[in-house]
Amino acid sequence: MASKLVREIAEAFQAAGLRSTPQRYAVLEFLLRQPVHATAGEILGAINRADPRASRATVYNNLNRLVRAGLVREVEGAGKAARFDAALRRHHHFVCEGCGAVEDIEWFEIPGGVARTALGRRQARTCEVLFRGVCERCAPRKKGARG
User: What contacts 30, CB < 8 A, 6 or more positions away?
Assistant: First the structure.
């Protein structure tokens, strides 16, 4: 498993034309290994436990480079800190306005006619649907509901 992940990260950096620095590698590895959508602060804390050389600026700079390269997506919460997600498979997101949790939603295509009508002469490079609302944990329970 570890060697497969090492190979995937190396190939991703090469395909994106990015140099593999220890800190950049650590940021992407953390995002690929964790099933959460972490904030930059959470990423900094996690990678500094293993190697305390990364600064906040280093983490932010590497996240920005990874986002621009298309290897990581930034998911903006409702007035909360941005969260980051390794973008190796296509999916959409749901952001809870109660607790700020970000959940993956399985990918679905937006019909071409809808996209063309909405975009006019614009030329989109990518598309992601971001749902906002209240997650199951935050939704008020109805009287008599089981849970």
Answer: 38, 43, 46, 47
